[in-house]
Design goal:
The chain is built from eleven helices and 20 strands. A hairpin with a 5-residue loop joins strand 15 and strand 16. The structure holds flavin-adenine dinucleotide (FAD).
Length: 407
C-alpha cells in the first residue's frame, strides 16, 4: 500500500510528489506517467518562460503562485545548476490605442509586487533595437529555462527521497474504498491511501473516474510556433510580447529567446480536435464529440467568434502569422521563419461558457484533483506542489498514518 499516488508526470505532478516527500519523509510515494518520458505533454512543449506574474488578477492563486514561483524556480535552478537566465521582457504597445491597456498592466504589475517600469519608444530601442513601439512596460523578473530539464531534476530528487516513479503506466480505472484507492493501470493495480490527479489535458476525465464532477471540461488549444533562422536571431535580444487582449486567456504571438539561444515566435491558440493533437490534421473522435456536445464550448465560440476565426487564419496562413509578428518587428520576413514544435494547452471551460481563469485544485475523497493548471503553472510549479500538500492534513486520515515533518 502506498501512502500517496500521483497520477501524471508533468511538472505539476512531479513538483507535488517532491513536496509530499519533503512534508512526509517516511511516506511511500508513487508517481504514474503514461508516456515513456517525463514532461512529454504541456510541460515539454511550452515557451520556457519563467513568468513574473504581471498579468493576473491581484489576490488570485495565479498572481501569488507565479510571483513566488518565479523566485523559487530561480532558486531551484541555482541550487541544482540548471541553466536559466533572468533576462527581463518587454510588453510592447504598437498603436496609441493600446496605451491605456499598457498602463493598466503596469499598474497591475505594481499591485502584484512585480518589478516593472514604463519605457518610452526611445528607451525600447536601446533594449530591443528592431522593435517598433509607442511605449512599453519592462518586466525585470521574467526569465527563461528549459522546463524539461527542471522536471528531470524533480524526478531525480523524488527517487533520491525514496519515491517510486513508473513511466509507461496509464491509469485506466480508479476504484474508491473507504480508506484507500485502487488505481488500475496497463501495468497492474496500485493501492494508495491518497491520490493526486495531475493529468493536465485529461484531468477532468480522471476526476470523473474517481466520482468527482469538476464542473468544467478541458478544452484543448494548440499553440503553434515558428523559429527564426539562426542568421536572423539578432532581431530579438530577449522576450518581446504584445499588449494582450484582456478578455482572452492567451498572451498573443510573441518572440521568445529560448535558453538554448534559439528564438521562437508564437504560440497562436487554435482549437485542437484532439487533446494531444500536435499537428493540424490530428483528430480524435471521442475528443471531438466531447467538445461539440458541450454547451460551454458553443457559448465561448459565439462570444469569441472573431478571435477564433483570426486564430484559424493565422494557423493556416504563414503570411497572417508573419503580419502579427511584423507589428512588433517590421523587419521580420516570412523567409526568416521556419515552423517548429507545437504545444497543446489544457484550459478548463465551464458549462456557461466562461473560462476558468485561476488555478483550480479540487479536494476529493482522500484525493486532490488539479483541474485547471494552464500557464503560468510551469513557473508556479513549486508553489502549486506546496499548496496541494497544505490541503492534505485537514481532509485526510493520512496524518495519523505517516509522520509529518514540522517546519
Ligand atoms: C504552448 C504552451 C506554452 C506555454 N508556455 C508557458 C511558459 O512559458 N511558462 C509557463 O510557466 N507555463 C507555460 N505553459 C503552461 C505550462 O506548460 C503548463 O501549465 C504546465 O506544463 C502544466 O503541467 P501539468 O503537469 O499540469 O501538465 P502536463 O505537463 O500536461 O502533464 C500531465 C501528465 O499527465 C499524464 N497523464 C495523463 N493522463 C494520464 C493517465 N491516465 N495515466 C497516467 N498519466 C497520465 C500525461 O501524459 C502528462 O505527462 C505553456 C503551455 C503551452 C501548451
Amino acid at each position: 500500500m502506498y501512502d500517496f499516488a500521483i497520477i501524471g508526470g508533468g511538472i505539476v505532478g512531479l513538483s507535488t510528489a517532491m513536496a509530499l516527500g519533503d512534508r512526509y519523509p517516511d511516506a511511500r510515494i508513487l508517481v504514474l506517467e503514461k508516456e515513456n518520458q517525463w514532461a512529454f505533454h504541456q510541460t515539454g512543449n511550452n515557451s520556457g518562460v519563467i513568468h513574473s506574474g504581471i498579468y493576473y488578477q491581484p489576490g488570485s492563486f495565479k498572481a501569488k503562485f507565479c510571483r513566488d514561483g518565479s523566485r523559487s524556480m530561480v532558486e531551484f535552478c541555482q541550487k541544482h545548476t540548471i541553466d536559466y537566465e533572468v533576462c527581463s521582457k518587454l510588453i510592447v504597445a504598437t498603436q496609441v490605442k493600446e496605451l491605456p491597456r499598457l498602463e493598466n498592466l503596469y499598474k497591475r504589475g505594481l499591485e502584484n509586487g512585480i518589478p516593472v517600469s514604463r519605457l518610452s519608444p526611445e528607451a525600447v530601442k536601446e533594449i530591443e533595437p528592431y522593435v517598433k513601439s509607442v511605449g512599453a512596460v519592462q518586466v525585470l523578473s521574467t526569465g527563461i529555462v528549459n522546463y524539461k530539464q527542471v522536471c528531470l531534476k524533480y524526478a531525480q530528487l523524488i527517487a533520491k527521497q525514496g519515491g517510486e516513479l513508473h513511466l509507461n503506466t496509464k491509469v485506466l480505472q480508479i476504484r474508491q474504498y473507504d480508506q484507500h484507492h485502487v488505481l488500475e493501470t496497463n501495468q497492474g493495480s496500485f493501492a494508495a491511501r491518497f491520490m493526486v490527479n495531475c493529468t493536465g489535458l485529461h484531468s477532468d476525465r480522471l476526476a470523473k473516474l474517481s466520482k468527482l464532477q469538476p464542473q468544467a471540461q478541458i478544452i484543448p488549444f494548440r499553440g503553434e510556433y515558428y523559429e527564426l533562422i539562426p542568421s536572423k536571431r539578432y532581431l530579438v535580444k530577449n522576450l518581446i510580447y504584445p499588449v494582450p487582449n484582456p478578455d482572452f486567456p492567451f498572451l498573443g504571438v510573441h518572440f521568445t529567446r529560448m535558453i538554448d539561444q534559439s528564438v521562437h515566435a508564437g504560440p497562436n491558440a487554435v482549437l485542437s480536435l484532439k487533446r494531444e493533437g500536435y499537428k493540424k490534421t490530428d483528430f480524435d473522435l471521442r475528443d471531438f464529440l466531447e467538445i461539440i456536445t458541450y454547451l460551454g464550448f458553443w457559448k465561448l465560440a459565439v462570444k469569441h467568434a472573431d478571435e477564433g476565426i483570426q486564430e484559424i487564419i493565422r494557423s493556416y496562413s504563414k503570411a497572417a502569422f508573419v503580419q502579427s509578428l511584423q507589428k512588433l518587428i517590421p523587419e521580420v520576413q516570412a523567409e526568416d521563419l521556419v515552423p517548429t514544435h507545437a504545444g497543446v494547452r489544457a484550459q478548463a471551460l465551464r458549462n456557461n461558457g466562461s473560462l476558468v481563469e485561476d488555478f483550480l485544485i479540487i479536494p476529493g475523497k482522500n484525493a486532490s484533483h488539479v483541474c485547471n493548471a494552464p500557464s503560468p503553472a510551469a513557473t508556479s510549479s513549486l508553489e502549486i506542489g506546496k499548496a496541494i500538500v497544505a490541503q492534505i492534513p485537514q481532509q485526510s486520515h493520512l496524518s495519523q498514518v505517516v509522520k509529518i515533518r514540522n517546519y
